[in-house]
Design a protein that fits this description.
It is found in: Cytoplasm. Belongs to the GTP-binding SRP family. SRP54 subfamily. This protein is an alpha/beta fold. The radius of gyration is 29 Å and the shape is elongated. Strand 6 (241-245), helix 11 (254-263) and strand 7 form a beta-alpha-beta unit. It is built from 20 helices and eight strands. Helix content is 59%, strand content 9%. An eight-stranded mixed beta sheet has the order 3-2-4-1-5-6-7-8, sandwiched between helices. The structure holds guanosine-5'-diphosphate and magnesium ion. The site of magnesium ion (MG) has 5 residues, from helix 6.
């Protein structure tokens, strides 16, 4: 994933203290490759990288001490933005029934998705949908829909395969009105490729039924092809939404990004399996993470949270809130952190951490932790509880006792103050996040 790719570049930059435009360029190359790998359309990638570069070369990244995380953040934000907001709303006609046409190539998942959508409409919105079997060409297509209908106890309208799809649609809508179905889902025929005959038939159905929604069903596994398919269907029919199927497979989902940016049509749902309840609203931010392969970063953060001793964490939180956090607690905290790996790296991965003042001064590495521990151990109980009593003779004594310098003792005391401030801010952030329903 992108996170891995960027790690290498980040390693190189780490020793340098400052990030140059050339470094950003190198990172952008990684972003580009990661997106192409995720099957995002070439032109979309090009435009996207250009946009992200502009932001990255700006102040944000160059000045940051965590350029890698900054870039991931920008890329993630821009990806989410590109894919639009959550769009799982379905039209409601003020003259029922609401008509939804399902279109797409053969095997994309139209019939399955018709069933899933009818199921969702009934379950979540309390609607009474009717399914219409308008694919008269594919052998057993009608039977397939009827089987799904039976399984869902959902009415399926069919006139066999000797009546034209347009006529089937016409009679279906009349029947739906008569029987007060509020939704009609027309399962149309597909071809192996987009062709004129297919499009003409779909146009005829559209002309007659004046559908409220035309959903293109596309197979996410087809990657690049999905974009061309989406483009021609959109040009010919004017789509109102896209359903991306088979995302339960190991596809990276790059098609989602390309389809959205090429057709400007919202992706409304994703298919996550063959079962009738495997249809989910499309969440752009989740898809962005999937495309970036950021799962590993998220896992790392989760691991960190799991590793910190729950009891200790609660106790510390309490202390932070009451501002009674002492150098002894600091020592304790360092011990916890050692179990997880470098503190600064972990903190920098946390969303919002870059906004915390003082964090940038907290460059703690393993060796330094040992030094810090030595210094704190050389303090008296009184000094640890009340660092404000520290004067130069005390500092000299501590320095001598720990084998460090007075400058280091001073630095530690400063860091401790910074950390205390930072923790107050973090605990504030956490309180806020809790109110909003927690970190995602
Ligand atoms: P149609 O030709 O467009 O009507 O496609 P179908 O609905 O017949 O689906 C073709 C195949 O894809 C079937 O085997 C479906 O079970 C399968 N399928 C559809 N949607 C999904 C999905 O979201 N995930 C998985 N794994 N399979 C799906
Ligand atoms: Mg079908």
């Amino acid at each position: 994933g992108l996170a891995d790719r960027l790690q290498n570049t980040i390693q190189k930059i780490r020793g340098k203290g400052k990030v140059t435009e050339a470094d950003v360029k190198e990172m952008m190359r990684e972003v580009r490759l990661a997106l192409l790998e995720a099957d995002v359309n070439f032109k979309v990638v090009k435009d996207f990288v250009k946009k992200v570069s502009e932001r990255a070369v700006g102040q944000e990244v160059l000045k940051s001490l965590t350029p890698g995380q900054q870039i991931i953040k920008i890329v993630n934000e821009e990806l989410t933005e590109l894919m639009g907001g959550e769009q799982s709303k379905i039209a409601v006609s003020n003259r029922p029934p609401t008509v939804i046409m399902m279109v797409g190539l053969q095997g994309a998942g139209k019939t399955t998705t018709s069933g899933k959508l009818a199921n969702l409409l009934r379950k979540k919105y309390n609607k009474q949908p009717m399914l219409v079997a308008a694919d008269i060409y594919r052998p057993a297509a009608i039977k397939q829909l009827e089987t799904l209908g039976k399984q869902l106890s959902m009415p399926v309208f069919s006139l066999g395969d000797q009546v034209s799809p347009v006529e089937i649609a016409r009679q279906a809508i009349a029947k739906a009105k008569e029987e007060h179905h509020d939704y009609v889902l027309i399962d149309t025929a597909g071809r192996l490729h987009v062709d004129e005959t297919l499009m003409n038939e779909l146009k005829d159905i559209k002309e007659l039924t004046k559908p409220d929604e035309i959903f293109l069903v596309v197979d996410a596994m087809t990657g690049q092809d999905a974009v061309n398919v989406a483009q021609s269907f959109n040009e010919q029919l004017g789509l109102t939404g896209v359903v991306l199927t088979k995302l339960d497979g190991d596809t990276r989902g790059g098609a989602a990004l390309s389809i959205r940016s090429v057709t400007q049509t919202p992706i409304k749902f994703i298919g996550m399996g063959e079962k009738m309840d495997a249809l989910e609203p499309f969440h752009p931010e989740r898809m962005a993470s999937r495309i970036l392969g950021m799962g590993d970063v998220l896992t790392l953060i989760e691991k960190a949270q799991a590793n910190i001793d729950e009891e200790k964490a609660k106790e510390l939180e309490q202390k932070m809130r009451t501002a009674s956090f002492t150098l002894d607690d600091f020592l304790d905290q360092l011990g916890q952190v050692r179990k997880l790996g470098p503190l600064d790296e972990l903190l920098k991965m946390m969303p919002g951490a870059n906004k915390i003042k003082g964090l940038n001064n907290l460059q703690i590495d393993e060796k330094q932790i040992a030094h810090v521990e030595a210094i704190i151990r050389s303090m008296t109980k009184q000094e640890k509880l009340h660092p404000e009593i520290m004067n130069s003779s005390r500092k000299r004594r501590i320095a001598a006792g720990s084998g460090r310098t007075v400058a280091e003792v001073n630095r530690l005391l400063k860091q401790f103050e910074d950390m205390k401030k930072m923790m107050k801010q973090m605990s504030g952030m956490q309180q806020k996040a809790k109110k909003k329903g927690g970190f995602k």
